[in-house]
Amino acid sequence: MLGGTELKVCVLGLGYIGLPTAAVIARTGAQVLGIDVSPHVVETVNSGRVHIEEVDLDGLVSGVVARGSLRASTQIEPADVFVIAVPTPFGADHVPDVGYVLKAATAVATVLKVGDTVILESTSPVGTTEQVRDFIAELRPDLKVPGRSSGGHADVAIAYCPERVLPGRILVELIDNDRVIGGITPRCARRALHFYRRFVRGACVTTTARAAEMTKLTENAFRDVNIAFANELSRVAETLGVDVWEVIRLANRHPRVNILQPGPGVGGHCIAVDPWFLVHGAPDDTQLIRTAREVNDAKCDHVIARASALIAAHPGVPVACLGLAFKANIDDFRESPALKVAVALAQRFGSRVQIVEPYADTLPSAFDGTGATLVDLDDALERAGVMIALVDHDLFRSVPLEERCDKHVYDTRGIWPDQPAVADSRAMRLAS
Ligand code: SAJ
Questions:
Q1: pLDDT tens digit string along 335-349?
Q2: Is there a domain that residue 207 lies in?
Q3: 8-state DSSP, 284
Q4: Which residue in 130, 162, 304, 385 is a FRET match for 65, CA 20 to 30 A apart?
Q5: In what residue span(s) does the UDP-glucose/GDP-mannose dehydrogenase C-terminal domain sit (predicted)?
Q6: Considering the entire predicted model, what is its pTM?
Q7: Are residues 331 and 226 in the same domain?
Q8: Cβ–Cβ contacts within 10 Å for residue 155, how many?
Q9: Of the residues 220, 249, 276, 296, which should be mutated to test ligand 1's pocket, given the most ligand atoms within 8 Å of the CB?
C-alpha cells in the first residue's frame, strides 16, 4: 500500500510536530487520523482549526480537514503506517521519561497487522526504538517483529526518524530538510524511507535506529554547547568591560569561526532537554555536554541578578520586561528563560514590573499575585524608565533609538547595537 493514494496513516500526538506532520501527509492524498489524549485538541482539529501557532498551519489544516484527508480522535484505529510524535520529557535528576512513547506503542500494538510500519519521531534516548520493538513483541506474540524472530521476514517494520524542524519554519523544514531514517533492520529503514519520500524533498538517508537516535541528540547538544560558548563569552566580556556583540560580529569575520548569540539562557523543549539524554546514556563521558547545560542554565540566574541590580539602582522607576517566549516571533513559553527572568523580577519588584509580550493575551499563571501587568509596547515605551529586553521579537527590534535613549536598558539579546553603553552597566557589574 505504501505510496498509493489510499495509504492510511495514524499520527500519535498532535502537538508542535505531530499536527504539522499529519497535515503535510494528508496533503499527499493519504487518509490521516491524528490521535491525541486531549479531547479539546481533537475537537479543535476536527473543526478545521489549530491549537498551536505556526506559520501557515491554520490554512493547511482547515484545507485537509475540509477535504476529509485529516481527522482526529482520542481512539486509535487500524492503519498502514503509525507515526509516534509524543513528548519525551525528563523527570527528577534529568532522567529521560519515555512513558508517553511506550503508551503510544501499547495503543499501536492493539491494532497492528502484518505489513504495517511503525515509526518513532519523538526525540528519544538511544535504545528507545528497540524498547518499542520489545514492547510490541511482548504485547503481540502473534506477529514476527524485526530483529527478534528468526526465519523469514518480519511481519512489521519498526524505525526511528527524528523530526528536525525549527518552530516558526516547521512547514517548510518538514519538506526541505534531510531526514535520517534508522531501521531496526535495513529492511525496516527502507520501508520507512518509502513513506518519507511521499512528502520529503530533502535527502532521506538510512542507518540503524540507534545511530538515528544519537544523531538527533547530537544535533541539539551541538547547538547547546555552541550557545553555551556564546553565553560564557558574554560573561567574560562583561567582566572585561567589552561589548560581546561587537566581539562576536568581528570574530565571525574569520572564515572558520561562527559564534552563536548569547541570551538570557536556553529554552524550549528541545535544546534545553535533549543533551541530558546523552548525559544519562553515558554519564562518565559527557563532561562538556553536561557543563554546557549548566553554563546555559546559570546564564539565566546571572541575568536575573543583573536585572535586579539595575532595577534596584532606580527605586520607584517603572520597569518593562520585553518578551516571555523562549525565542523570537513564536507563542511558545515552554522552558522559557525570558519567562523565568520576568517572573523572578515580578516577584521581587511587584507592580513596578510591566510585561510586553505580543504573543500573549493574558499573563501566564506564574505571575499570579505578583502585581505585574501585561501592557502593550507603546504603553511600556511611554511609562517605563528601566527596560529589560528578553526576547528578540521583530516588534522589539523595530524600536528606534529615540524611543529608548532616555531609558536604562539591559539588552540581553543584543537587539539594539546602537544603544549607548551607560554607567548602569558598571553599576550592574558591581552589584551582581
Ligand atoms: N538560542 C540562543 N542563541 C542562539 C540560538 C538560540 O540563545 O544563537 C536560544 C533560543 O533563544 C532558544 C533556544 O536557544 O531559547 C533554542 O532555540 P533554537 O532556535 O536554537 O532551537 P529550537 O529549540 O527552536 O529547535 C531546535 C532545532 N535544533 C537545531 O537547530 C540543532 C530544531 O532543528 C529541532 O528540530 C528542534 O530543536 C527539536 O525539535 O529538537
A1: 999 999 999 999 999
A2: no
A3: G
A4: 162
A5: 320-418
A6: 0.93
A7: yes
A8: 17
A9: 220
